[in-house]
């Protein structure tokens, strides 16, 4: 198991004055002994930040941080396979409003079977939910070892609401809501999630109709984004 660090995690750490090793220690404290890597897209975003710095001191600090990243971490390129996967997801799922940079970081993680670690959990859930039938969220600081698998039906006011699917591939008859601040990891596109959806996918509309009835098709299709 491994993780791809989103640019937001690194930018926040650099602004706090942390070294790359300190950031990796925090990642391991939250997620255990996992392999951590980057997408080359993050190097693009960090280099952009170097040249947007308001002072020479900020510019040199950011440059040193970027060089430390490249020295101490694995940086995965955007291969032909990753580019094609990102293009397929964007084309098939019409991922409107999702930046191509974030999509490439996410598909890099998917290509290697890794999770994405990000500060912007809302953006990750929005992207993953548009691209995949179900997502898995972990709240390791609240409930270590437990996870919730389902379809995102609402994202608002710092919370995510899921229609969950159980290990027997049946959809729950009630919704569950979680604080975004409690979510430590999001998984998607894995064999386990795909298998559950393959078996239980046809029952999804029946499940949402039981919860909302037939009167609100907008919510039944999981499109309540705020």
What does this structure look like?
- The longest helix has 17 residues, at 56-72.
- A hairpin with a 2-residue loop joins strand 6 and strand 7 (159-164).
- The protein has 2 domains: 1-119, 5'-nuclease (Rossmann fold, 3-Layer(aba) Sandwich), CATH 3.40.50; 121-226.
- Helix content is 49%, strand content 20%.
- It contains 10 helices and 10 strands.
- The strands form 2 sheets. Strands 5, 6, 7, 8, 9 and 10 form a 6-stranded mixed beta sheet that branches.
- With 226 residues, it is α/β, with parallel strands linked by helices.
- Residues 211-226 have low confidence and may be disordered.
- 33% of the residues are buried.
- It has helices at residues 7-15, 20-31, 40-51, 56-72, 80-93, 100-112, 121-131, 191-200, 204-212, 217-220, and strands at 2-5, 35-39, 74-76, 115-117, 135-138, 147-156, 159-164, 176-179, 185-188, 224-225.
